[in-house]
Amino acid sequence: MTFSERMLQIDRRIIFLVIGLCTLLPLLYPVGLPIKITSEVRGVYDYIELLPEHSVFLLSIDFDPASKPELYPQAIAILRHAFRKKLRVITMTLWVSGTGMADQLVTQVAKEMEKEYGKDYVFLGWSPGGQAVIINMGQDLYSAFPSDYGGKPTKDLPVLDSVRNLKDVTYMVSLGAGKPGVEEWYVFGKDKYKFEMGGGCTGVMAPGLYPLLRSGQINGLIGGLRGAAEYESLIGQKGKAVAGMDAQSATHFAIIVLVIMCNAFYFSLRQQRR
Amino acid sequence: MPFELIVGAWVATGLTLLIFTFLYRDNPLFKLAEHLYVGVSVGYIIVKTYDTVIVHLVVKPIVENGEVALLIPVAIGMLMLARYVPKAAWMSRYAFALIVGMGAGLAIPRTISSFILKQIEDTVRPLLSLTGTDGITFSMDVLNPSSNLNAIIILLGVSSVLFYFFFSIEHSGVGKAVARTGIIFLMISFGAAFGYTVMARMSLLIGRLTDLIEFSDASYGRPTIWLLILIVGALFMLARRRTDHPPDSQ
Question: pTM for this one?
């Protein structure tokens, strides 16, 4: 057996180990590689930055714990930004499996930013129907969510003062890990009720959402952990996403090297057989 | 540190490490964690759905506010359950008809508007720009999505990929060159999608390892270290047992 043959039949657990080490070592010993801000992430940041105080900002946390490593840092960064800008923050989720996590997330950031529930922000929780909920909110928000996550009637909440439906929302961001998510919010929300919106998504979904960004259907897109790291850099509060960027770069480098090596061994073997 | 946080850290660490054991080989520890995940997820969804839908959106409004009109959607929803009774199964068709009809009616116009018309509008862009005093201009900036050069690239990409999927003409001569161009654009697109997928999977690994590092702290009782030793020991025992009693080849 030649060297190329042996390398092409290498135990896959060795590759797992290499990737594991490439992830673990930069997390333990960070280098602090620079993070370049892309225009798609800046699109969301700039829009929120320019919103006047007390504008109505809707954040739909459309993911569950399975996508937490990518989307949780995005949600934390956006909420910190919105609270810092003194916006009226309405949060909700279209994913039943993400309700508890979303509640924990919103409560944690609001506590950190010293915001008052009901006055500065609200968590509406989950309502069944997916896209039907968006349409229902477009007609009457109080019919879609008669009570908030804690069971309080939404009509009495000061944060929702003068908000009747989605037309009264100044800006909306959906952080989606699938369906319902960013696409549904655009199709059944923005396109029909004409409010401005941005999106955040997992890395897997990002290429599918770029056409919406390019055509101006959404004004910004935060893609995966990388997007979260960019947003954290923009608001100047570096968190878990920025900390993970060194590891991300190291693993990408390792994968590129492995792909090149694999191709080199493959072509070398093919040449030997000829 | 609150007690529930410490318990949560131990549970999260243990389950993460049990799932990671699959990287070594399929084993009972992985199966245990996998079944726990499925069971807890389904249980959580059932409880949340019952609480939100049945209690808060149906029972409370009817009992406390007298909103009896809600009985109509409840009745339509109950028709779905008729599928489990063979003689009454036909009744469920009315509920399905309503859902399919409403769903299609709501989705078709909006989807056509959002994904077909808007995307065509964005694809059909001028290849040259007319400006007030300068006359005709051509912008070459590849990084600017709305530049004329990118408009040409998009035109080439869309046309060649569409031609590749046009099977009524044999792909030979000029047609072959156009179809090959389409394949190149498709390959670039698949490569970009795969690159993002790799990035996403690595992000998930980073997320779990970040938590494992955090939970190796003394304030949590170092669950990462203790559970790692325990699980490696268990895997070693399982491997020895497998050697002593190899599975029946038949």
Answer: 0.89
